[in-house]
Amino acid sequence: MKPSVDDVGVDMLPVVRDSRGTLTIVEFSKIVPFQVARLFYISGVKAGLSRGGHAHYRCRQYLICQDGRLEIHMADGTRERSVELSSGQAVLVEPGIFAAQTYLDDNSAMLVLCDRPYESEDYIHGMDEFLKFRRGKA
User: Fold this and answer.
1) β-pairing, 108-114 with 89-93?
2) Nearest to 72 by CA among 15, 2, 4, 5
3) Hey, what CATH topology would domain 9-134 get?
4) 124 closest CA partner among 132, 116, 113
């Protein structure tokens, strides 16, 4: 069964705040539902700009808002859904879900954990290619 945007939930990560700042905790074995093979982060993005805009054939991604606010827009070929994340919130994006991230505040930062190394052939670019894949024609 192919994943649906209705399956995506927002996780609240444990956060400790005090006069020294904010500590956000991600215990891989308790929170991330896969073994992490790759990590990358995006920062320094101006408010209103979008990144992503693709899906994966095989790669699972756990998107964590580190700072600021992000809008994660997702599509599954039938339905679309957007969720807003603030610091300390995360979503799991399964393979076969098209996702784009809009940075709502200047200097928002996103950390992404992946279950696969970078593989250029794993990316589904563009909505037309994505819809063909979802309909089983790619």
Assistant:
1) unpaired
2) 5
3) Jelly Rolls (2.60.120)
4) 132
128 sits in which H/E element = helix 127-134
Q: How far is CA 47 from CA 68, 97, 100, 103, 137, in A?
A: 10, 24, 14, 5, 37
Q: Which tens digit of pLDDT belongs to each residue from 57-89?
A: 999 999 999 999 999 999 999 999 999 999 999
Structure tokens at 125: 């670019």
The DSSP code for 88 is T
The structural domains of the chain, with segments of one domain joined by +, span: 9-134
Tokens of 82: 């957007």
Tokens of 34: 């896969």
Confidence (pTM): 0.89
**Looking at the chain, which runs of residues are DSSP E strands?**
10-12, 15-18, 21-24, 38-45, 50-56, 61-67, 69-75, 80-86, 89-93, 98-103, 108-114, 123-125
